[in-house]
Design brief:
By secondary structure, the chain is of the alpha/beta class. It has 6 helices and 4 strands. It has a 4-stranded parallel beta sheet with strand order 2-1-3-4, with helices on both faces. α3 links the parallel β3 and β4. α2 packs parallel to α3. The protein is globular and about 55 Å long. The N and C termini lie far apart (42 Å).
Length: 154
């Protein structure tokens, strides 16, 4: 019997549950063992934090799919990074076979801020979003996008 490849899907859960359900169904139909927080399929240990379990899953998966949306995850570590951000950085660090997708809202917001003169993280730190912002919920999604090896090409 062939071993199924384990693919970890890293993506903020809130507000994109339907997308997650579709991605899960599609990848499962293609024969992958899908690890996804939304579906509760990431291996966890009672003596680990959610951050630790997710990062361990990145280490143990065969393939990695990261999706950057306009929403930022709610869980932030001491450095201010979301679980999703840390997972993607870990997959890159480990050289995992990976696919990283970015929603056009994130790319547009980044380009628009650059056009306004906010070219770097330091420039964007001067900005704050109003409570209830809906286009981008946290400017850190642009940081996450820029942490990807291909972002300087776009």
């Amino acid at each position: 019997m062939d071993k199924k490849l384990k693919i970890m899907v890293s993506l903020t859960v809130y507000g994109v549950e339907e997308l997650l359900d579709r991605v899960y169904s599609l990848l499962t139909a293609f024969g992958y063992e899908v690890w996804m927080s939304h579906k509760g399929t990431i291996p966890v240990s009672s003596d680990e934090t959610a951050f630790d379990s997710c990062l361990k899953a990145v280490e143990q998966c065969d393939l990695f799919l990261g999706i950057i949306t306009a929403q930022c995850g709610s869980g932030l570590d001491q450095s201010g990074l979301s679980i999703t951000h840390k997972e993607m950085k870990k997959a890159i660090e480990l050289g995992k076979p990976r696919w990283l997708l970015a929603h056009d809202e994130v790319i547009f917001a980044r380009r628009f801020l650059i056009d306004l003169g906010y070219r770097s993280r330091e420039d964007r730190e001067k900005l704050s979003l109003q409570d209830g912002a809906t286009s981008i919920t946290n400017l850190q999604v642009i940081d996450l996008y820029e942490d990807q090896p291909w972002s300087n090409c776009l």
